[in-house]
Structures are given as C-alpha cells and as structure tokens.
C-alpha cells in the first residue's frame, strides 16, 4: 500500500464513490447561486441547473489555502507520508496557487501538480496517478504521469450561456476547446446535430486509439450527450467511452446547455 495520498478539488468532477474507493481527498469549491451556498457533493444537481435555466446567477471561488491545509492534515493523521495535490490549469484558476500556499505549511511534503487541463480531464489525470501509485510507482513518477496525461488531454464542447440557458431552435451552436489556458472557438454550427458531428469528427480523426468521456450539464442536453457518445463510439479508433455529469463548480461557468467530451491515449 502506498504511503502517498492524492488530493484534488471538486472541479475535477471525480465521482464520490471513486474518490472514496481510491482514498482521494476532494476539497470543495465554493459555489453560490444568487448568493446562496450550494453544496456540490450533496446538493441536487438537477435543481441547480433548473435554477440557472430560470435566470439564477451562479458563481464560484477557488478553495482557500486553509481548506487545502485541512485536507493535507487529514492525510497526515491517516499516517500518509506525502501528498500529490492535482488540479486544473493554473492559467485560469488560483486553485493550484492556494494548494501551493497550503503546502508551504503542511506537516508532510506536498507536491502540487498543474495538469494544464480542466474539468473531467483533471479527474482522468487523478485516476492515472492513483493507478501508478497502486502499481508501486514513486510519488514523483505518479506526479509525472498525471502531468504528462494532462498535456495530452484533448477536448471539445458546446456551452450556451444565454440569460436563461434555453435552447431556441437554430441559433449558433459554437463548438469550443480548452487549449493553452483558454477556451477557443473551433466551429459555429447551426444545429445541435451539426455540433455533435463536428465534435465526433475530431475524435474520429485521431491517428492512434483513444479513450473518451462524454459529459453533460443540465438534463436539457442529456439526450444530446447520449447521441454524441453513440456517434463517437462508432469510430474504430475509440477504445472506450464513459459518461460523466458536469458538476456545479464547472456548470456555474458553462451554463446548463453544455455538453462535450474529453479524449486521451487509450490505456493511459
């Protein structure tokens, strides 16, 4: 059993059962809906998106250094000797910086890993580090695995953030990607179906086999995400397709009408 533990934050969208099974500390991301606190790991995510669809405003703030300090202290009390703290791209969030500040005062060594990706992509990197540790890798090797995978993580998504987030016929469905610390536009489509095809085409064009994960925010786009997953799965280059739900700490920024996917080298 490894004496190194992993910490991440809720924006990694790591399911609670996976975090518990792997012994991963997950630090909450403060989420407010019209200035009311929303507890991401215990709240009703459908109710969260329903409020956004009716015009509520959601905001987030990065976890505080104190929140990370407590997570590292819990790990130390469990007899852990070292922590890998794995987080989203530092170019768009101060989360990794909060973790670094907490690491300076931690009673055990903490290595903060900037994955250079976001959302569920971070969760995939966390899982890779956990597998490496379980297989006997050192903390340095596991940290390198997480960072290397984050650098190879690719994505495409649709995010519509109109005032009420509702779908209105043939308005543009802009397909974007998170690259180099920012969201960049890839193509503007005139229908959800065209957006699905555009996203799937990027996966189908891969030169080597990939694993994929398809996610959605509000239930209003769940069927569209299912169609995207089905379309992606038809490619001989796709080894595996999994599904995930966009949590409040990410959905506060994308809005309820958001779905998309990540892909990375198969077996990583």
What's the arrangement of secondary structure elements?
Elements: E1 4-9, H1 16-22, E2 25-27, E3 31-33, E4 36-38, H2 45-53, E5 58-60, H3 65-77, E6 82-87, H4 95-105, E7 110-114, H5 120-134, H6 139-152, E8 154-160, E9 173-179, E10 182-189, H7 192-204, E11 210-216, H8 222-233, E12 238-245, H9 248-254, E13 257-265
Parallel strand pairs: 1-2, 1-6, 6-7, 11-12
Antiparallel strand pairs: 3-4, 3-5, 8-9, 8-13, 9-10, 11-13
Helix pairs in contact: 3-4, 5-6, 7-8
**Number of domain modules:** 2
- Amount of helix: 25-40%
Q: How big a fraction of the residues is strand?
A: 25-35%
Specify Rg, calculated over alpha carbons.
Answer: 18 Å
Topology as a string of helices (H) and strands (E): EHEEEHEHEHEHHEEEHEHEHE
Largest sheet: 6 strands, mixed
* Corresponding CATH architecture of the largest domain: 3-Layer(aba) Sandwich
Per CATH, the class of the largest domain reads Alpha Beta
The secondary-structure class comes to alpha/beta
Question: What is the 3D shape?
Answer: globular
Oligomer: single chain
Number of helices: 9
User: How do the strands line up in the largest sheet?
Assistant: 10-9-8-13-11-12
Overall average residue pLDDT: 94
End-to-end separation: 21 Å
Task: Fill in the CATH topology of the largest domain.
Answer: Rossmann fold
Low-confidence stretches: none
